[in-house]
């Protein structure tokens, strides 16, 4: 088994973090360490992380948290998760097997919403899965809540650009794909919370994502503070 390091940025995630950690614990794969990069949570996030045997480092915004976690990572492969995702059975084993078989340096997984609403299956599942599949060869990108990367690739591109405020995950994958092979893993889907859609509204948040996409396309990476909230959902 390959040694892996799982890195999770957190900020007041006592509600969601236990579900993710439980799903990791139930995997039929045990060559891993879990690093929680916490941005000074005021709830029981750190207490929960300690209970599950996680290493804890100083966090911040997602790019900072991921980089801080990677600095102490011992695994050959790093996996970045957000705290509100859940792993289905055999997620680690099957996706790592595909990652190695396809000789990838960086990858992401297909997505499935933690929701029974048809609209969520469309905007959180069908649309991003289809788009990532179609563009993986010529314009790779990936959501930060599920990224597999070889540690040597992370170090080669010097991690996430901490000056980027929005879509730092897409920039990260874009740079990594220039020095290694990128792919969309099809073996097992990541189960993703729709809490952001519930809070901000599906139409409003979809328009916001489209706006940021075009902003990056025509003006480059977003390095100024925008309407973004981390944690406290």
Structure description:
The protein is α/β, with parallel strands linked by helices and 233 residues long. The chain has one domain: Spore Coat Polysaccharide Biosynthesis Protein SpsA, Chain A. The chain has 9 helices and 8 strands. It has an 8-stranded mixed β-sheet, with helices on both faces. It is globular, with a radius of gyration of 16 Å. The model has no long low-confidence stretch (mean pLDDT 90).
Name some characteristics of this structure.
single chain, 233 residues, alpha/beta, Spore Coat Polysaccharide Biosynthesis Protein SpsA, Chain A, eight-stranded mixed β-sheet, 9 helices
Describe the SSE topology.
Layout: E1 4-10, H1 17-25, E2 32-38, H2 45-51, E3 55-58, H3 62-72, E4 77-81, E5 85-87, H4 91-101, E6 106-113, H5 118-135, E7 146-150, H6 151-156, H7 168-176, E8 182-192, H8 195-200, H9 202-219
Parallel strand pairs: 1-2, 1-4, 2-3, 6-8
Antiparallel strand pairs: 4-7, 5-8, 6-7
Helix content: 40-55%
N-C termini distance = 35 Å
Strand order of the largest sheet: 3-2-1-4-7-6-8-5
Largest pleated sheet:
8 strands, mixed
Number of helices: 9
In the CATH hierarchy, what is the architecture at level 2? Answer: Alpha-Beta Complex
Number of domains: 1
Structural class: alpha/beta
- CATH fold assignment: Spore Coat Polysaccharide Biosynthesis Protein SpsA, Chain A
Approximate shape:
globular
Mean pLDDT, to the nearest integer, reads 90
CATH superfamily: Spore Coat Polysaccharide Biosynthesis Protein SpsA, Chain A
CATH C-level? Alpha Beta
Instruction: Write down the secondary-structure element order.
Output: EHEHEHEEHEHEHHEHH
Beta-strand share of residues: 15-25%
What is the gyration radius calculated from CA atoms?
16 Å
